[in-house]
Amino acid sequence: MLTKRIIPCLDIKDGRTVKGVNFVSLRDAGDPVELAEIYSKSGADELVFLDISATEEKRKTLAELVRKVAATVNIPFTVGGGISSVEDVDVLLQNGADKVSINSAAVKNPELINELAAKFGRQCIVVAIDARQVQGKWLVHLVGGKVPTEIDLFDWVKEVEERGAGEILFTSMDHDGTKAGFANEALAKISDMVSIPVIASGGAGDKEHFCDAFTKGKADAALAASVFHFKEIEIRDLKQKMKEKGIEVRM
Questions:
Q1: Closest to 225 in 3D by CA, of 187, 164, 169, 184
Q2: What does the UniProt keyword field contain (predicted)?
Q3: Which residues of the chain have pLDDT under 70?
């Protein structure tokens, strides 16, 4: 059985790590390279860096940051934000990223998923999906959650797998930053629909929430930000709890 992964997420804005609630009210959480090193040494399985203003401001994720992180950590890391072409991905992978995450660009141009998977291998391509419930239906949102679409979450999940995504990073915008637990019902539905790994995001508040994401939500990995950045949960303690509950984890 594959071990379940714990992934700190560093939202980057203007070169700093930030964290908000429901995608707004951002506050500073520190230097991303320093945080990456701490997480690498404290038991994180992977890292995700999302340049949260890159798509909105139509600029590219900084390759320089990727270079610094690659020189500092010895665990895999994914980079996302403002990626919209083969060239963008090439630069990030050349500078040391292990995977890239695409979101808005994939919705606007679904063929991009096919192109990237064909060029770099699907193991490099993470499709991030931000969704929230609107009148009882899960709908995909773009540009850091600011732009709603009529796209059904579950239809989109199936399509991105068919187009060559290697992983899905699902964030429930309704749960993001609330610390009330992950969207386990939607997670389980997604996990049952696809054969690629699913990363849970949005809602982590305590160790039990992570365990629930793996047991009830059937997720392959769980991602969180503020509970790690502000030391509310230590990764080694979390993994110990998971182990006690019979969840396969790398200690």
A1: 169
A2: Amino-acid biosynthesis, Cytoplasm, Histidine biosynthesis, Lyase
A3: 1, 19-25, 54-61
